[in-house]
Design a protein that fits this description.
- The protein is mainly α and 52 residues long.
- Helix 1 packs antiparallel against helix 2.
- It is flat.
- The model has no long low-confidence stretch (mean pLDDT 88).
Length: 52
Amino acid sequence: MKKIINYLPSIFVIVGFLLVSFGVYTINKASGYIVSGLLLFVLSYMFSSKGD
């Protein structure tokens, strides 16, 4: 259970990004793809190693 609690913020970020992407996709298909790509870029930047 403690391992899940460590990953909980990351899970919330991913679910939030998915919900935002789906919401924009339902409004406009092309904008949904653009927002999904931008959020994937942000997600990869957040989880990449910063050289520490």
